[in-house]
């Protein structure tokens, strides 16, 4: 869709009715925020929830000004939580990354949430810890670490040991390592060893209606160092299992409710005095809007003002943030140095 520059100009205007292709469109109010205007909203917020990639870091590098902004919030006694949709690493590994990038030590494993931790928590609360039932896992090291922490017995991760199928075009059978009645859940997240065998195993375990189907996140792609290369995320893998099993998973990552419930249980936040700050409109902003939080898009990662305008035109007001800013560093009071 071609975005008219005048639409961007009207993005944060007072006039909610905007003409596009000779048709009136109702724009949801969104405000551009800078260091000065941030001062007027910060006093109404107790808890800041940050996405990580595109907000605190980009790949392996820190986003300039973000550590100082976190320091500033901590100096104001604000509660700071990091909520990533990436389940490939555990919270402990992300905590080390934050420390390495120069973030305040108050950002640590206990202030981080990732879908792997929420999946493990979901399974433990469903009574799957302590080895009562096993979990068939399509997932990475981060998920294994979080499952270990809650004593959940899992199998199936990593490369398939051997392809025993014959030379015919179809596979008509597959050997299941565990009896389906002993498998309490199938979990699906990003796994680079995903293949047809794993798909077939997952779908066959899920034939048992008692077997839970839990997914980390449904992001289509993930950011990478080479802009020209598409990196499929967990979404396409979840979609394959969903399609083969003809069942819908409980997906815990943003924008879904399990991640919010996890945060609510752990920190008892007041949604009206909480802001979600992220770089994606369809995960971060939607998560905040769907759960009654204030929302801010930072333009230091994935989505830009064009994307906000597209959401306005499409009437997707749940993906239009209350505020947007170029990056976190742009919100720091000029006279203060942290
Ligand atoms: Mg992000």
UniProtKB/TrEMBL annotation:
GO CC aspect terms: cytoplasm
Cofactor: Mg(2+)
One Pfam family it belongs to: Hydrolase_6
Residues binding Mg(2+): 51, 53, 279
Gene3D superfamilies reported for this sequence: HAD superfamily/HAD-like (3.40.50.1000)
Domain of life: Eukaryota
Cofactor note: Divalent metal ions. Mg(2+) is the most effective.
Record: residues binding substrate: 254
Keyword field: Hydrolase, Magnesium, Metal-binding
Active site annotation, chain numbering: 51 (nucleophile), 53 (proton donor)
One MF term in the entry's GO annotations: metal ion binding
Name of this protein: Phosphoglycolate phosphatase
Organism: Diploscapter pachys
């Amino acid at each position: 869709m071609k975005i008219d520059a005048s639409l961007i100009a009207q993005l944060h205007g007072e006039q909610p009715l905007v003409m596009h292709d000779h048709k009136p469109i109702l724009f949801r109010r969104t405000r551009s925020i800078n260091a000065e205007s941030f001062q007027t909203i910060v006093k109404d917020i107790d808890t800041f929830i940050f996405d990580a990639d595109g907000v605190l870091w980009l790949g392996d590098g820190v986003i300039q000004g973000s550590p100082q902004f976190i320091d500033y919030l901590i100096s104001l006694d604000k509660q700071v939580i990091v909520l990533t949709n990436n389940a490939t690493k555990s919270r402990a590994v992300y905590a080390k990354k934050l420390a390495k990038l120069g973030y305040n030590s108050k950002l640590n494993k206990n202030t981080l949430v990732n879908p792997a931790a929420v999946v493990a928590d979901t399974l433990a609360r469903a009574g799957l810890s302590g080895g009562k039932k096993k979990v068939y896992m399509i997932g990475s090291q981060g998920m294994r670490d979080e499952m270990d922490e809650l004593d959940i017995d899992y199998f199936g991760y990593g490369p398939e040991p051997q392809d025993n199928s014959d030379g015919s075009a179809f596979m008509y059978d597959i050997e299941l390592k565990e009896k389906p009645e002993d498998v309490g859940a199938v979990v699906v997240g990003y796994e680079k060893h995903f293949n047809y065998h794993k798909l077939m195993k997952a779908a066959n375990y899920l034939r048992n209606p008692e077997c839970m189907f839990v997914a980390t996140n449904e992001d289509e792609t993930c950011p990478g160092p080479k802009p020209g290369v598409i990196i499929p995320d967990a979404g396409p893998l979840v979609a394959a299992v969903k399609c083969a099993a003809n069942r819908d998973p409980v997906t815990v990552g943003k924008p879904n409710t399990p991640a919010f419930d996890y945060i609510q249980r752990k920190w008892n936040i007041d949604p009206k005095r909480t802001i979600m700050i992220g770089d994606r409109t369809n995960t971060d902003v939607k998560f905040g809007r769907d759960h009654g939080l204030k929302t801010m898009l930072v333009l230091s990662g994935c989505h830009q003002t064009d994307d906000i305008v597209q959401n306005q035109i499409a009437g997707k007001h749940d993906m239009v943030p209350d505020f947007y800013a170029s990056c976190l560093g742009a919100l720091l009071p000029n006279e203060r140095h942290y």
